[in-house]
Design goal:
The structure is a homodimer of 315-residue chains. The N and C termini of chain A lie far apart (44 Å). Helix content of chain A is 32%, strand content 27%. With 315 residues, chain A is an alpha+beta fold. In chain A, helix 1 runs parallel beside helix 3 and helix 2 packs parallel to helix 3. Chain A has two domains: 135 residues, 2-Layer Sandwich (60s Ribosomal Protein L30, Chain: A), CATH 3.30.1330; 152 residues, PurM-like C-terminal domain (Phosphoribosyl-aminoimidazole Synthetase, Chain A, domain 2). The longest helix of chain A has 19 residues. Chain A is built from ten helices and 13 strands. The first copy, chain A, is globular. Chains A and B meet through strand 2, strand 3, helix 2, strand 4 and strand 5 of A and strand 2, strand 3, helix 2, strand 4 and strand 5 of B.
Chain lengths: 315, 315
Amino acid sequence: MSEFDLIRTFFRDIGPQRADVALGVGDDCALLNVPAGQHLAVSIDTLSAGVHFLPNCDPAAIGHKALAVGLSDLAAMGAQPAWSTLALTLPTADTAWIERFSAGFTALSNTHGIRLVGGDTTRGPLSVTVQAHGLIPAGAAIRRDGARPGDLIFVSGTLGDAALALRGLLAGESVDPMLRHRLDFPTPRVALGLALRGLATAMIDLSDGLAGDLDHILTASGVGAELALKQLPLSPLVAEAVAKTGDWSLPLSCGDDYELCFCIPADRADDVQALMPDCPFRRVGRIQTERGLICRLPDGGVFIGGGYDHFAICA
Amino acid sequence: MSEFDLIRTFFRDIGPQRADVALGVGDDCALLNVPAGQHLAVSIDTLSAGVHFLPNCDPAAIGHKALAVGLSDLAAMGAQPAWSTLALTLPTADTAWIERFSAGFTALSNTHGIRLVGGDTTRGPLSVTVQAHGLIPAGAAIRRDGARPGDLIFVSGTLGDAALALRGLLAGESVDPMLRHRLDFPTPRVALGLALRGLATAMIDLSDGLAGDLDHILTASGVGAELALKQLPLSPLVAEAVAKTGDWSLPLSCGDDYELCFCIPADRADDVQALMPDCPFRRVGRIQTERGLICRLPDGGVFIGGGYDHFAICA
């Protein structure tokens, strides 16, 4: 048995057994049962060493995050996670690394009851691609194109923690453990996404920063928005960094938050506040008819929002 | 619009529109309809520069092959191709490269009526991951574990062409165009796979070489096999190379063939020969009770088969 065969063996049994997996890892394809009346929701994402994580990153964090990114996309549609596939490219067959990676991937799989049903292990520069598969009753998915003028805009969790951690790491500084955890082990907001079915008119997950990701909702829905920056949910350290510099890029455009941004008709605001999901959320703005994104500063000034580009450096 | 946004735009409309795509590229997830009574078949595969293709490879060939590998896995289950997702990692946003890549990917998508429904474009060392999604009536999939003693073993197309082409390229020799085409533009045997539903007891696609891939069937089915090497379907140039050296690794263990290997009960041999699929196929051996793979040489001698390892060099 080659080392790569050994590694494949690690991935035979990740996540709980599920009755809807007719055939899992080990054949040319996995065979899956999608119940009648349900849509299959799929999302594929790659994390590359040096771009999406630092080369010396804890392998357990890479395993966690590679799956979390896909689960966050499922959450953003209001889908229930079901299955994953994993394509892992490794420079060498390092079993210690793989064990840690697998532990991180497995723990999050178990949290969400998601089964790994297929994969590919190849040699090359370190990179991880995961496809997440979820289920959602036909017609119940929360898309990006349903926002209407007057809708209230909400954001879950806190923004900018991961970006502040990355900035510290790249500067060689010691990083607050909470921030570091937010960077390495983001929490996909699956329960919140499910709770918002039938309530949110539009939703997206925040991977590239609130300004750019909200703009995807605005473009798809043909509307604009105004954000009140003083309402943004910030942890104390991010709030301090913003106050010190007056630079709002940490919560607005540095990305890596994996929180949900969603829109709610104003007359359903009480229904939303009554939800008891897996994380807090806060109202941050309002959809309006005029196109564009207006960011209102605490002092009353405004600026126009901008997104995140993988070729820009945000740290 | 950033260059990467431009590139994403290239991938918005690949393959035919399909009524079973409720939501395609452009949201957090694609939403897909799997008909009642059908299994979803999925396979994910990565091609990395320098490992699965040469750095100077025609981008159209990379686009073709990245999808062909997944379609070959669907074929090997007897599944009907339906949808693909694509995770593309590029060192730079080279639009000329992307146009060629997209052309190769699109042409094969159109051939098989498969729609690109989601993707991710990231920066990093060149690498392509594709997930192929197919449909198959529940219970009709052809797995690896159904081979029975006495079954006849068949192989489609010809073996070793791609490996001989790669050997020539790595040696800096001029390579026969037919061989080069077999390396760069492998043909997934989709129609043959579909035709074998209800007929083949076991099937696999040949990516790592006949000996190693057949061994997966033997292991899963708990049986052995004998191959008659003089029966292997070889193109004239591969036959010449084998005759010259007496080395059978080109057709047996160098891989990259993307042909189908399948097992048929002896009493259904006539039914198989009556098929008119998209490619020829030939009987090459027989399943037997004793475990292991016996390769019988044309002179009557025998040896035990061996597979392909990504860390071994076969060229």
